[in-house]
Prior knowledge:
Blueprint lengths: L8 H12 L4 E3 L1 H8 L8 E3 L3 H8 L3 H6 L1 H12 L1 E5 L5 E3 L5 E3 L12 H14 L4 H23 L6 H11 L2
Helix pairs in contact: 2-3, 6-7, 7-8
Amino acid sequence: MGPGLGRNSWGTNVWNEVKKSKIKKVIDADALYFLSKENMTKEDCILTPHLMEASRLLNIPKIDIQHSPIESLKKLTKKYNAKVVLKGAGSLLADSKENIYCTGLSEPAMASAGFGDVLSGITGGLISQGMDADDALKLAVYLHVFISKKIVKESNKRVLLASDLLVELQRNIF
């Protein structure tokens, strides 16, 4: 939930309905904005913030997140009782047992609009097919970077569009 949601009355109403439901949630983009305005805790969900969204969720400066990303990841996990991906070069993950993982992979060509939306979509898609949320999160982050690196290697593109990733995922995975 989040990509394309918007912060208008419609988006607010959708947020209010979804947050009340017992469905598993992957929260990204504008839904992270709404979450930052509330004290919603004890929600078993997945959060996928980038640095600015993490800053808003923790109410601390972005520079603090950059200087202490692992500590910030731990704080997000505890505050929201959530599995978290702190997106960025070498994304960090925390699972439901608060184990922390670093992808060790990055792809500069991914630094364009919509890539985080694709990550939350992959994660939600895997969960909706019955995969355990921890496993879905780890696999989604891996596929997100691995397929992007594959595209760059085969095409020599310096900047990717999120749609490039969608096409390649469909071709290779689904």
